[in-house]
Structure formats: structure tokens, C-alpha cells
Amino acid sequence: AARREDRTTMAPSTGKPAVTPDSVINLDHGDPTMFEAFWRETGDAAELVIPGWQTMSYFSDVTNICWFLEPELDQQVRRLHRTVGNAAVDGYHVLVGTGSTQLFMAALYALSPAAASAEPISVVSTAPYYSSYPAVTDFLRSGLFRWAGDASSFEGDDYIELVCSPNNPDGTIREAVLASKPGGKTVHDLAYYWPQYTAITKKADHDIMLFTVSKSTGHAGTRIGWALVKDRAIAEKMTKFVELNTIGVSKDSQLRAAKVLAAVSDGYEPSEADARVGARAPRLFDFGRRKMVERWSMLRAAAAASGIFTLPEETSGFCNFTNETAATNPAFAWLRCDREDVDDCASFLRGHKILTRSGAQFGADPRYVRVSMLDRDDAFDIFVRRLSSFKSGEGEAD
Ligand code: PMP
């Protein structure tokens, strides 16, 4: 047993350090470590051993447009979407990326005008928008595309509109705001369209849809995202981007992601072998929903107790996956500080050793901050306790 342990664990890093009641609590990034507690309890359901001679070739399936996509990942992606009913997969190409971040860039590349003489195409999204959209769009100062800000004030014919739903940072359910024009393209970032965060109200069937294990299962460190793409020529161009950028995507990571997605599907449609022995695989979305409901209720109570913080109203919908009405439980809290003397909520909270991301980074008012709801229990508990202590003035001293 000891030898097997050595073989499979390789002393991995644990990410962020453990916290104590007076630590700095970092909820700036959406690091999904909340899900570790679930996967710790799943035994070998998501365990994988890769012999030294495997996954050595650059190629996975030379007959597929996305020639570096592992067939097993392709199958498990389709199976999970069919199980959950959150996105159409029939007639779609599945593409894999190093996180959905790489596929976001691939989509910009694929949707940009082909003519060398063309002006860069405008990339827009309704504010508040995910802070990486402007950052990733402009960091290489591409001649193909350029960040043009808030979609709701955009005027022009040619654009790429990014639609994130449920939205990072504020959790709203969104649709494209720009009326479709011949020169207009949309990319749907559905990273949070999973039952732990929101009701699954329809089977999404947009032209380009992005997903990631980072938010669906919590395996951000595996760096696997996928795109569902309708159009063959766009799928080819996106594949070309990944080829030029990284010559493909880690096969080890793809196999691990496939194993993890299979374990999630098994929880809801047991394999024949499991069914025969009456075994039931652990159910990720039940765990995720339970945790999110609990955390949102703690956070709402703390914000109310503080008297100075407000949160978006709770919304709900009928979930076709669970067959129940479910509230949205966003992966981030979009928190507003209503104290008159505070015009920069992020620096106010930083003074109380809580790190968050300023509304300004999302094209919004700096009285707002985005707070990750997906950290480990210890950090989340300390955060909520600190927040509720503001009223009594205990939080004021440091
Ligand atoms: N889209 C959204 C809306 C996100 O919030 C994130 C992660 N914070 C990503 C994409 C990127 O995910 P990945 O880890 O797959 O690159």
C-alpha cells in the first residue's frame, strides 16, 4: 500500500496556506478549493495511474478536427452534458484547451476578420464583466481584436460580444444584448451553468459555448476547458490557435479530467457494474448545491448583521435537472459597501485583512467588490465572521 501511495501522490502542493482566525483571507481569485472536501470522500472513483510509457505522442485522434483531443474526454464531456441537460452536444464539435481561458483566446482569433488590412474587431461585454476579458483581450496588443468595453453602450456593426451566464462577477443570468448583425459574433462563457450554482432552465445551444472543469468539478489545477462549437470552419480555426499556441493540450490532464467527469456522471446514472452491486457513486452537484445554499445563507445573515453591506437579491428558477425550484447560488458574491465614508470597498476590506477584487476591475463602481464563494470552509467561515462583526465596531480597530 505504501508503494502505491508513493506512486500516485508525489507530494503535491496544497495551494494556498492554511488560515487562522487572524490571517489575511484571500478571496480575490475564484480558487475552487471548496470542492476538495467532496473529492476526498470519493475513494478511487476519480483516481488515475498513468504508466511511464503512456500519453507520449503529441497526437490523440488524427481523424478529428481537434486532433489533440483525447477521445475519452470527448465522450465524457458529451455524456455529462446529456446527463445534466445544460448544453446541446449533438452536431457540435468538442475542442479542448488549457483551461477555458485558452479557448477564449482561440475564439477571439477564430472570429476576427481574416483580411490582413482589416481594423481590429471590437470585443465587448455588458458591465460588470469578468475582469479577465479586457486583460486577456489586450495583453498582447493584437492587431486582430481589441477591447471596446461595455456592450450596452457599444455602437458599431462588427463586434465579438462575450456573454457570461451566470455572470462573473454578479451571478446574473444573461443573454446577448447586441441585436444580431451580420458582423456581430457572440461567445457564450457558460463556466457557471451547472446545477450547484443555478437552475438548469434550458439546454443551451449557442454557436460557441465555453466550459471548464475549474468551476464544474473544482479541478482548476488540471487546467482543462472545453468548447462546444457548431461551425466546422470556426472549430478548425480555434484548433489552429491551440496548435500554434501550445501544440495541443496535456494528455495527462485530459485523461484526468475525463476520469473526473465520468465520476460525476456515474453519480447520476450508475454504471451497470455499480447498479448490480447496489453501489452509488458520490453526487457532486448535490454536495455543491448543499454547500452553496449553506454559504449563501450564512453570507446573507452576516451582511444583514453588518448593517453596511448589501448583496444582489436572490433569484430562482425551475431546474430541469433536479426537477425542483432552485435559487441561484453564484460562485461569487457581488458585495456593495453602503457606508458613506467608504468609496473603495476593496481597500476598506483589505484594511480588515480580507482580499477581494474591486468593482472597478469589472467596469463597475468601486463601492462593489467580488468575493469568491468557493474557498475552503475555514477561510469562508472566518470571512463571514469578520463581516458580521463590522456592526459592533469590532472590525474597526485593525
Ligand atoms: N470564464 C469565467 C467566467 C471564469 O470565471 C473563469 C475562471 N475564473 C474562466 C472562464 C477561466 O477558467 P479556466 O480555469 O478554465 O481557464
Automatic annotation (TrEMBL):
- Cofactor(s) listed: pyridoxal 5'-phosphate
Q: Where is the Alliinase C-terminal domain?
A: 25-390
Q: Name one GO biological process term.
A: amino acid metabolic process
Give yes or no: UniProt keyword Ligase: no
In alphabetical order, the GO MF annotations are: carbon-sulfur lyase activity; transaminase activity
* Keywords annotated in UniProt: Membrane, Pyridoxal phosphate, Transmembrane, Transmembrane helix
- Reading the lineage from the top rank, the first entry is Eukaryota
Q: What is this protein called?
A: Alliinase C-terminal domain-containing protein
Residue window of the full protein shown: 116 to 513 of 523
